[in-house]
Amino acid sequence: MRRYGKHTDEDDVRVRPNRKGNRPRSNIRPKHEDASEGLVLTVDRGRITCLIEDRTVIAMKARELGRKGVVVGDRVMVVGDLTGAKDTLARIVRVQPRTSVLRRTADDDDPYERVVVANADQLAIVTALADPEPRPRLIDRCLVAAYDAGLEPLLVLTKSDLAPPDTLLESYGALGVPYVVTNREELADGAAADRVRERLTGRITAFVGHSGVGKTTLVNALVPERRRATGHVNAVTGRGRHTTTSALALPLADNGGWVIDTPGVRSFGLHHIDPSRVIHAFPDLEPGTADCPRACSHDEPDCALDQWVADGHADPARLYSLRRLLATRERREGD
Questions:
Q1: Is residue 28 very low, low, confident or very high in pLDDT (cuts 50, 70, 90)?
Q2: β-sheet bridge partners, residue 123
Q3: Beta bridge mates, 233
Q4: What's residue 229's pLDDT?
Q5: How far is 14 from 1, CA to CA, in rounded Å?
Q6: Which residue, 32, 34, 80, is CA-closest to 57?
Q7: Who's near 298: CB < 8 A, 6+ residues apart?
Q8: Which residues pair with 319 in a beta bridge?
Q9: How far apart are CA 328 and CA 326, in angstroms?
Q10: Residue 224: its pLDDT value, please?
Q11: Burial group, residue 59, by CB count within 10 angstroms (0-12, 13-18, 19+)
Q12: Strands (E), the chain
């Protein structure tokens, strides 16, 4: 049945009253042109601590961001109360484009990616030479994740007073990964922190490592005014106890860069890794892939890299290292 006549205007149209008394929903969102830029320092149960100029502000994610995650290292645009006063809460309305994203999965069969940090440019892989014993497969996996994310890796070996570093360093020599070796005495007198700090100046560095390797102890030495709780290694299981429960970005003195302390990991899944991106970290081998078969895994009989190396274009040890890293996705960390 026709409700309105043939010639109607807006005065003839019935409009249902809004029972809630509020404005109707709209797809038009404010541009927040007056938003201030901040750096995400830590995320804890939906509350996000941001550094805006010289003050810390607690914020929450705005509804218009939907499921878009906010992680430590993100550059965000914030509105609302930006005084940083107690019991105030601001809103994050935009997340700026990320320059890098370090991801991991719980294991290689888990399709759910967890973003560890954003916008870092260096990954410090911290491992103890003893107590607990080093886990080369975990180091390999962290290296693969670093190469995939476009981060420069840095190997930090702790507790050299308990075991020599030579064997472990030899296995990574062909990769050319820079490294720093420390011991407990040097941590106590500050010498270790000074050597590590030289590698961090002007960089945003994420620290990752197995629980109990001394990662947070080293971060505390680098930023002593922001000490975090540390734990010990279980004498029975040989595993460390999780004391760092959330990632935290800390500034080095004199604007020397940033360190991001992350919770200890017991696994580093690589389900999200595209093996074709790992080869970009090997500029001496990458040109040799031009003649590889389509979708070559670089570890098969027809791979052109074998001939590339045989012709003297690259060191065979480099090819072995590449294939070891590519194969680590099929192996567990404890293998």
A1: low
A2: 153, 206
A3: 240
A4: 52
A5: 16
A6: 80
A7: 275, 279, 289, 292, 305, 322, 323, 326
A8: none
A9: 6
A10: 87
A11: buried
A12: 36-44, 47-52, 55-61, 75-80, 90-95, 101-104, 114-118, 122-128, 152-158, 179-181, 203-209, 248-251, 257-261
Count of CB atoms situated within 10 Å of the CB of 106: 16
Residue 105 — pLDDT band, cuts 50, 70, 90?
Answer: confident
Nearest residue to 180 via CA among 210, 204, 215:
215
Contact 275, 326 (CB under 8 A): yes
Instruction: Count CB atoms within 10 A of the CB of residue 10.
Output: 6
ω into 287 cis (within 30 of 0): no
Angle at 250 between CA 221 and CA 52, to 5 degrees: 155
What's the maximum distance between 2 C-alpha atoms anywhere in the chain?
Answer: 93
Q: Is residue 305 scored above 90 in pLDDT? A: yes
What's the whole-number mean pLDDT along residues 64-90?
Answer: 93
For the chain, the straight-line distance linking the first and the last C-alpha, in angstroms and rounded, comes to 75
What ranges in 67-135 are assigned the alpha helix state H?
none
Question: Which pLDDT value is given to residue 234?
Answer: 43
Please tell me what DSSP assigns to residue 268.
Answer: -
Rounded-to-integer distance, Cα 50 and Cα 39, Å: 5
Whether 87 has a pLDDT exceeding 60, the answer reads yes
For residue 209, list its beta bridge partners: 126
The answer, yes or no, to whether the previous bond of 132 is cis (omega within 30 of 0) is yes
Q: Are 301 and 171 contacting, i.e. CB atoms less than 8 angstroms apart?
A: no
The phi, psi pair for 292, rounded to 5°, reads: -70, 150
**What's the DSSP call for residue 105?**
B
3-state secondary structure at position 95? strand
Give bridge partners of residue 59 from the DSSP assignment: 48, 90
Q: Are 295 and 289 within 8 A, CB to CB?
A: no
Q: Is the pTM of this model over 0.85?
A: no
Distance separating alpha carbons of residues 244 and 230, to the nearest angstrom: 8
* Both structure tokens of 184: 């407990």
